[in-house]
Structures are given as C-alpha cells and as structure tokens.
Amino acid sequence: MGSFVLERMIAAPLERVFALSLDVGVHVDSMTAHDERIADGVRSGRMAEGDTVTWDARHFGIRFRMTSLVFDVDEPHAFSDRQIRGPFAEFRHRHTFSSIPADTTPGGHGTLMRDEIEFRSPFGPVGRIVDAVVMRRHLVRLIEQRNDTLAAQAEQS
C-alpha cells in the first residue's frame, strides 16, 4: 500500500484549523483546478462523525466519483476519512492537529496540521506500479493544494 505524511504549520488557532478541515466548501475551493464538486451527501458546511460526501472531479482528464466517510472525530485534535466507494481499492486519510508554541507563529496562535494518507489502486501489480510512478506524486500535490487553501483561509483575520 502507498502512503505519505505531510505536515504544515498554520498561524491560526487549533479550533479554527480543525473546523475548516471539515468544511466541504473549503475542500471544493481547494480543488477548483480539478473542477471538483459535490455530487451527493453533505453539500455545505462542516462534516461530522458518520457523514458522507461524494466528490466528483477531473483527474488525468477523466471524471471520477469518490464517496468518503468521516469517522473517529476527536474535536479539535483529529478525524479520519476513508473511501467507501470510488476509484481506489483502498484510501484512508488521518488528519491530526496540535497547538504549537505561541512564539513560533505570527499573532501568537499556531497549529501543526498533519495528514497521513494510505492508498492502493486497483488491479494488483499494475496498480502498485501506478501508485509508485504516478499516484503518490499526484496525491501529494492534491493534499498540498488543499492545505494551501485551508491555511490561507485559517490565517485570515
């Protein structure tokens, strides 16, 4: 299974960063380059434990749909989501948040946001090659784009 971890320091309070991470509008804003939209499930605002959303987006010139389930919500410290229907054989995303010392960020509020992603494409050995050659790099870019948008919104006063 492919995996990676990204960490991002955000100059905003933990509670704000956590809330924005569960906001479907922030996610849609971050994926405009992929024409992402909500096809089903939670359509606006903040997701909660047990909520699902179906994302419809264009990747590699092809439209994909992926339904995600939010679970293990531990506000404001962590939550997870996983694909329950979609293009991956398996996809899990663990989000964790921790306060960082006030003297390390402007404004005295800071959050370390950590994304742990595990994924597996279908089709056995062919899928493992796709994961190693293409998919990991693509997913890292997507999560970085999402995090750029989230940080920009969180850091606005």
Would you give an account of this structure?
The protein is of the alpha+beta class and 157 residues long. The chain has helices spanning 14-21, 24-30, 124-155; strands at 2-10, 37-41, 52-59, 62-74, 78-85, 90-99, 111-120. The chain has a 7-stranded antiparallel sheet, with helices on one face. A hairpin with a 4-residue loop joins strand 5 and strand 6. It is globular, with a radius of gyration of 16 Å.
Q: What is the compact description of this entry?
A:
With 157 residues, this protein is an alpha+beta fold. The protein contains three helices and seven strands.
Strand content: 35-45%
Q: Summarize the biggest pleated sheet.
A: 7 strands, antiparallel
Succession of helices and strands: EHHEEEEEEH
Task: Compute the separation of the termini in Å.
Answer: 40 Å
Task: Give the spatial strand order of the biggest sheet.
Answer: 1-7-6-5-4-3-2
Pick out the low-confidence regions.
Answer: none
Number of H/I helices: 3
Overall geometry comes to globular
Average pLDDT confidence is 93
Query: Could you estimate the helical fraction of the residues in percent?
Result: 25-40%
Number of strands: 7
Decide which structural class fits the backbone.
Answer: alpha+beta
> Using only CA atoms, what is the Rg?
16 Å
